Amino acid sequence: MSKILKFTQFSFRDLIVAAAPTVLTIVGICLLAYWLVDPAPPRTVRLGTGQENSAYEDFGKKYAAALAKHGVKVTLVQSAGSSENLRNLKEGKVDIAFVQSGSTNEEAAEREGLSSLGSLFVEPLWLFLREEKGQPPITQLTQLRGKKINYGAKGAGSPRLFRQVLELNGVEKDEVQRFSLANTPATVELLEGRIDGLVFTSAPEAPLIQMLLQTPGIRLFDFNQAEAYSRKLPFLTHVVLPQGIVDLGRNIPSEDYNLIAPTATLVARDDLHSALVDLFVQAAATIHGGAGWFQQQGQFPSAKYTEIPVDPEAAKYYKSGPPFLQRYMTFWLANFFDRMWVLVVALGALILPLSKVIPPLYVWRIRSRVYKWYGQLRAVEQRVEEAPAATRMQVYEEQLKRLDEIEELVNQVSIPLSFADGLYGLRSHIQFVRKRILFLMGEGSPAGVEAVPV
C-alpha cells in the first residue's frame, strides 16, 4: 500500500476553476456591452452622388475606394443632383450625400435630422452659351430673355440657384425658355445648336466642364458682378478662373473669368455611426485637401461655408485631427477600444468585488478534496455500528478493506502544501476508525487508544 502523498506548491487548475464564474461573468458583460453599449459601425453605407460624368459621381468613386481600404463598402446612389440628394436623405434612401450650399437652411436641417460633415470644394455656376456670328457676346443676364437655356435636370442644384440669380437681375421665369435636361444630353443639344445655353453647378474636374471649356464656338459667361452676387446671396463666393488654367500652351481660357460659386458639402443623417463620420471626414481630407483651381492647399475640407450644423465628430476632427487611437491602430481595432472605454470603467467597479469571491472559492475547492472523504468514513462507522450480531465479524472485515481502499485513494490526492494539515488530519482519522474496528473485533485494546474527533 502506497503511503506517498502528492503535494504541490500551488494549484493553477483549481485557481482557474475557482475563477471561472467570475471570468465568465466579466466576459458575458463584455459581450453584452459590445452589442448594446455602442453598436459596431455597419460595413455598408449608401452615398448619394450625382449625374453621369458629374464631379459628384467622380468624387463618389474616390470615397468608395478610400473606405474600401478599411473594409467598408460604399454603395453609390446616382441622382439628378443636390436637391434630389437632399430629398433622398430626408426619406432615408441614402445615409450620406453631396449637397450644394444654399439648398436648405439650419432650421430645416435640424428638423429633418441632418448634419454637415463639412464643405469640400467650391462648385461654380457655369453658364455656357453658343457664340452667334455677327452678334455681340452676352455680358448681362438680362440679355437671356427669349433664349433657350437648359437649367439642369429636376432634382439638381443648378435650377434653383439659377432662378435666384435671374430674379436678382429682374428676369422673370417666363422670359427665358427653360429646359430641364440632364447634363450629358443638354451638352449634345447645345453643340447641335438646338438650345442657346446650359447651366452647371460643378467642380471644374467634371469631364463635361473640361470639354466645354475647350470647345470652339462655346463661350463661358463672365459674372463680372460676382462680388455683388456674393453679398446678395451669402452662401455664394466670388472665384476667378485664371487665364490659361485649362491649357497654358493654347492660352485657354484667353482671359480671367469671374464666377459665383456655392460649396459642395457632405451631409449625413444624424443616425450615421460616428465611426463612419470619422472615416468620411478623413477621406475628405485626402481627396479634397490639395490645391485646386479655386482653392489653396488645406483650405478644404472645412467646417466653414455650410449653413447646416456641423456634426460634433466632424467638428472634433477639424479642431484636433483624427482620433488618437486611429493614428496608431487600424480603424476597426481603434473603434473597438474606443467603444469599450465605457465598459472598462464599469468593469473597474465590478472586478474588485468579484475578485473577492475567488479566494474563498479556491480554498473551498481544495478543502473539498479532503472533506468529501469524511462522508466515506462516517459511512464505514455506521455500517460497523449497525452490523447484525450474526454477520458482525464479516462486516468488520469488509469495512477494514473499505478503509484500506479509502486510504489508498486519499494518498493519491494532490493538494497544495499550505493545505497539507487537512490531509494529515484525514489520515489520522482513518487510522482512528481502523483501530476502533480492530478493537471491536477483539484484536486491539482500548487502552492507549486516544479518540481523535472526526
From TrEMBL:
Keywords: Membrane, Transmembrane, Transmembrane helix
InterPro entries linked: TRAP_TAXI
Stretches that traverse the bilayer: 12-37, 340-364
Coiled-coil regions listed: none
Record's protein name: TAXI family TRAP transporter solute-binding subunit
Originating organism: Duganella margarita
